[in-house]
Amino acid sequence: MSEPLLKYSPRETALSEPQLTKREFLKFSGAGFCLLSAAQIFGLPKTSQAQTAKKGLIKTKLSPFFTSLSGGEIQCDLCPKRCRVSKGKRGACRVRENRDGNYYSLVYGNPCAVHLDPIEKKPFFHVLPATTSFSVATVGCNFQCKFCQNWEISQASPEDVYSYDVSPEMIVKMAKEVGAHSVAYTYVEPTIFYEYMVDICQLAKKADLLNVYHSNGFINPEPLKNLCKVMDAANIDLKGFTEAFYRDLCSGELTPVLETLKTLKKEKVHLEITNLVIPTQNDDLSGIKEMCLWVKRELGADTPIHFSRFYPLYKLRSLPPTPVSTLEKARNTALSSGLEYVYIGNIPGHEGEHTFCPKCKKLLIQRIGYMIGENHLKGGKCKYCGKPIPGIWT
Ligand code: SF4
To answer: Closest ligand 1 atom to the C-alpha of 191?
Structure first.
């Protein structure tokens, strides 16, 4: 008997589905909300139903980003960790291996998660609202965040997880079959399955699909510039605004992430930012203000930013969920710092989910969780005052 395609059900930054009472549901249905059916969100493409998950599936591809050192050792040049890896060993992300002095990806074409999601779940609020995104992930990550919401796959090795044999061609075929408008590289850090991602991106573009990714931004400049040629939109986690936060909670660094944000902006990839607000760890308002002022100065006031609610998971189970009031204070701080599109994530029904025109202040796009209600954009502009709204709208 075939395994289901979705052996593991991954999360984005948001955890909760919209919790609506019957009365709220009827109210918003009546208001013309576009509610994606369960079949649309979780329906599987026919092509995929014959797939059988296999534990420990490993498919290799030579990495274009490594330097040979003496004695068969190599240095990986894909991300700023720049792992030095001796023969037979793997890098810190666990999905790249030195085989006789050559460096290989071990996850080319073997995703462990393939989902059809609303694009709002990524989260992208300024990219084709109310469409679905065909979402793909393999195992592995170059960070070790103590608050990871997908640690079962991000902190695993290919041997530990059930995955599927799905070529880039098959991904694009399935995405078209289920009516997705985009392919999303997400759930774990997509940089670690770079070769697979880039090959899918190239085929997706030819098939008239957008490419979107949700990333920690921890990638070196050369592979990033190459990726920008085929990537349409990026949501980058700006997890905190101090090196200490990145070092102590993520085993990463802040500075390369800031460089990635600047490069994406310069290369004209549509950019949104997510900041997961964790009680006592990064919820200090002066730090949030500093971050927002940096975003405004370096990326522009029109960069959408999502303050997302933390839920206790993985190694930070002792902390409480983020209070709604903390997220509201973060949002107010961002707005008073001059940012124009500031969202609250994972509180379905909160006003902070809607898009408002920064000029005339009218409601432009109404949301509850992943549902879209009123949409008052016309040709990418506010229909009331004509202000252009940044994003990919058609
Ligand atoms: S991509 Fe993986 S192997 Fe390469 S430097 Fe980063 S963590 Fe190390």
So the answer is: 1
